[in-house]
Structure formats: C-alpha cells, structure tokens
Amino acid sequence: MMKIYSPISVSDVLEFLEKYKEEGCLLAGGTDLIVKYKEESLPYVSMCDVGKITTLKFIHEEQNSIKIGPLVTHADIIESSLIAAYMPMLADACKTVGSPQIRTRGTIGGNIGTASPAGDTIPALMALGAKLKIASIHGERLVAMKDFFMGPGKTILKANEMIQEIIIPKMKKEDKGFYIKLGARNALAISIVGVAGKIKCKHKTFEKVEVAFGSVGPTVIYKRLKSLERKAFTKKELWNEVQYIKDEVQPINDVRAKAEYRKEMCVHLLYQGLDKIIEY
C-alpha cells in the first residue's frame, strides 16, 4: 500500500524527498502519475501531494524575465497576460495539450518533470532559453532546459531534488516566435512532431534562429540555426535551406508515424513557422 503525504510547505516537500529519495514521488496535477498508479506501474512506496502548496503556483514578472512556479497549470499560462505579452508561443504550446480538463489540471512542472520527448511545453521553453531552479534541502542550482533531459523519462534531477521555479527570458520587440504541432487529429493527440522557434529579425533577415523539435529524438532537440542567420531569402531559397534539418533529428518508427515522415514534417513545420515571420 502506497503512503500519501500532504505537506504544507516547500521545506516539508524537500524533507520528504531527502527521506524517501528513489522510493518517493511528487504528485501535482496527477494527469500522468494517476494513470500510472492505476496501471500499477509505479515503483514508489510513498507519494507527496504538493497540489495545495500555493507558494509553488505563481507567474511573476522580473525586469528581464518571467518566473513561473511548477504548479502553474497549462490553463493558467493560456490565460496569463504576462505570458501573452512576453512569450505568446508558450501559451500556443499549452493550447495543444490534451483536453480542457487536462489543461486545467496538468502543471508545467509536471510536463517538464515527466521528460517525455513529446511534451508540448518543452520545445517552446527550450527555444525561449528557459532555466530551471532546482532545490533540495542542501541548496539550489540553476540548470538550462536544454541540459536538463537525458532520455525518455530521464532527467539530471537527483532523487532528493525538485523543480522549484522556471525562469524564462522575456522576448524583446525584435523577437518573434512560434509553436506548431502535428498530431494524428486536431485534439487530444500526442505530438507526432512539434516545432518551436524563437527568432530575432532585423531588416528582413534572421539575426538569430533558435528552434527545438519534439517527438523526433530521445529528448527534445535544441538547435541554433546559424546557417539561416544574417541572410536574405526568397521563399524557394528558404525552403531549400531548411532541408538539412532532416539530418539533425533522430526520430523512430512507432504506431503514430514512420521516422522518414517525421523528418519530412520537421522540415515542413520549421519552414511554415519561419515563412510566417520573415519579410521577403
């Protein structure tokens, strides 16, 4: 029988993690964990329900960044005026998550911690240059999103650590972004391919191109596309230029799509996003 704890503070959570380590897990929105619990596929003996710790649910504006607590839901992000003003591509990514019920319950911290290569918020956060504040009873450390994931369901998070905060640099006026997802249907679909981009534009050229691809590797894949920077393109030239992306991703064949199809869709979705941004 699994033991369930209900902490009242972050320090309580950190003490739980220090005590149980690999034998304990955190429960936030529960949209992923509860399913695994019902399937009896969880290896844990103790669960810590953090859902009522209000100090982990916030969206704050700093001078150059937006800070988000791990218990903020996808619906909270969609409705946030700060997200809309400084990083609307993150809201676009959250809009593609599951159903309205899942978006209301599921948390951004859970989406990150689950470490699925198909996680919808992860490509957007990577392209935005997000960092994670990770905490244990021994202290805190800051980790870039692109360095956090090790494989499907695997991260650099130690057994006694938790995600305490997501820190995202504000997009500037010259920055534009996009998140485009391809699923098997229009709603309630796991991503076949997801592409996010943060693009700095100036004088009809790309000054800086940062993109991230979901569902085409063991982790979300971050790339800076320097070959596109400081050049002017026609539509045809841009299409030809992005073809090399097929060699930069590592998709597999599964029940949702063939690897070759995923490669082709990476090119199509990337081109679609860039085409909407550039002024020819």
Secondary structure: elements and pairs:
Layout (H helix, E strand, L loop, with lengths): L2 E3 L4 H11 L3 E4 L5 H6 L7 E4 L9 E3 L3 E4 L5 H6 L1 H6 L1 H8 L4 H6 L2 H7 L6 H7 L3 E6 L2 E6 L4 E3 L2 E2 L6 E8 L5 E9 L7 E12 L2 E10 L6 E4 L10 H7 L17 H19 L3
Parallel strand pairs: 1-3, 2-3
Antiparallel strand pairs: 4-5, 5-10, 6-7, 6-10, 8-9, 11-12, 12-13, 13-14
Helix pairs in contact: 5-8
Strand order of the largest sheet: 4-5-10-6-7
By secondary-structure content and strand pairing, the structural class works out as: alpha+beta
Rounded to the nearest angstrom, the radius of gyration is: 19 Å
Mean pLDDT: 92
In DSSP terms, counting alpha (H) and pi (I) runs of 4 or more, how many helices?
10
- Give the terminus-to-terminus CA distance: 63 Å
Percent strand: 25-35%
Principal-axis shape: globular
User: How many runs of DSSP E, i.e. beta strands?
Assistant: 14
Biggest beta-sheet profile = 5 strands, antiparallel
Which spans have pLDDT < 50 for at least 5 consecutive residues? none
Order of helices and strands: EHEHEEEHHHHHHEEEEEEEEEHH
Helix content: 25-40%
